[in-house]
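A further point concerns the way the authors explain their paired sequence and structure data. Each protein is reduced to its one-letter sequence and a matching series of backbone shape codes. An entry of this sort, consisting of the sequence and the corresponding backbone structure tokens, reads as follows:
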Amino acid sequence: MRRSTIFEFLNRQPDLTGEKVRLRSRRLEDAADEYRWRVDEELCKLDAATPVTLPYNEFRERYALELECPGLTYTLAVDVFDGRHIGNCSLFNFDFLNSVGEIGILIGEKAYWERGYGADAVKTFLTHIFETSEINRIILRTLNWNGRAQKCFEKCGFKAFGNLSKGEYDFILMDIKRRNMLKDDQ
């Protein structure tokens, strides 16, 4: 099977179904959830981010522009089967020469934490990436004190390979390779 190039891959936004979640294209109506998550200090701390200070209407305008022109970031919304939008997952920071991308996930709805929704979203996203694109390795950064995230990523097959300090943050670097995830794909 021919896999798409990274550029071809970025132009597709399929609906994907896991065991607990559906991944889909983001929509403008998701902006209210995204805003709520991006102003939440606890969520921002877990994401090593500064809370958004823009008023909602300005955030929504920027969100609409990002939907129209996503650039080199591939982001899908995470929904549970009843249609509730609980988070998102992204692929970004591409190294085109080495077929590497970086993944990030946010489960913004705290009622869905520690119940397997994040791991299912990550596994579903990884399978799609490895089965349909030329990407051979996916890396991620997780805060060194965030044991819950590390446990989730290990459950999905990621292995720690290093550390990174950036400003006031210390991260554990983790990765997964296509050959390790798709055993029959040689």
